[in-house]
Amino acid sequence: MTTAEREAPGAGPGAVPGRVSGVVSDEEIGRGLAEGDERCLALAHRRWGRLVYTLAARALGDPREAEDVTQQVFLAAWRGRAGYRPERGPVPAWLVGITRRKTADALTDRTRRLDLVAAAGAALPPPDGTGEGPEHVLDRVVVIRELARLPRVQRDVLTLAYFGDLTQAQIAHRTGLPLGTVKSHARRGLLRMRRSLVAGAGPTASISGAQPAPC
């Protein structure tokens, strides 16, 4: 089976409206999206997902944030499909416009997080002779910075665990998330922080054995 055949739904009950055979055109994907066809959303993601990711990664300089923005772009495209007008421009241009807005939102959110990190770092107590010297304080600042770079839900869960001193059960109650979801977000957040710190030769010892508060 060729790539075109795999991409095109083809004729029959599962076909994209207006298709007979061959490759689905950009215009057909756009019309299908506007009409609420989920198959056209999947085709759009397959065809232009790399474009959206590349634009986001270039602007943000962070692959993780670019992945999050890419998901947000296609979710926004689906939710706002009724506002798409094929006569005003092709689907790629429409997606690029959404990407620019979502990237700007991500940059604004990053600035806000970094401001909070700077405030948290400034609030750290000075060394008091009990062993918490400048290097240890710097490690804490770096860990806070990495925490700020996590996806929002993972960041919120770990912040409540470590700075709010809440158990995972308490976090689930406060956020309304299922307990299993809280555990999953905490585990993935810790793994992402470890990978980032290892890649940057950061203070891995600060979190290498860390675990969120138990249930």
Would you mind describing this structure in some detail?
This protein is mainly alpha-helical. About 65% of the residues lie in helices and about 0% in strands. The protein contains nine helices and no strands. It has helices at about 5, 25-35, 40-60, 65-80, 90-125, 135-150, 150-160, 170-175, 180-200. Helix 3 (about 40-60) crosses helix 5 (about 90-125), helix 4 crosses helix 5 (about 90-125) and helix 8 crosses helix 9 (about 180-200). The chain is elongated and about 55 Å long. The termini are far apart. The model is unreliable at about 1-15, about 15-20 and about 200-210 (pLDDT under 50).
Counting DSSP E segments of at least 2 residues, the number of strands comes to 0
* Parts with pLDDT < 50 across at least 5 consecutive residues: 1-15, 17-21, 202-209
**Total of DSSP H or I helical runs spanning 4+ residues:** 9
H/E series, N to C? HHHHHHHHH
Strand content: under 5%
Assign a percent range to the helix content: 55-70%
Write down the overall mean pLDDT: 74
Rg, Cα atoms, Å: 22 Å
Biggest β-sheet: count, sense, barrel? none
Structural class: mainly alpha
General form: elongated
State the distance separating the first and last CA atoms: 51 Å
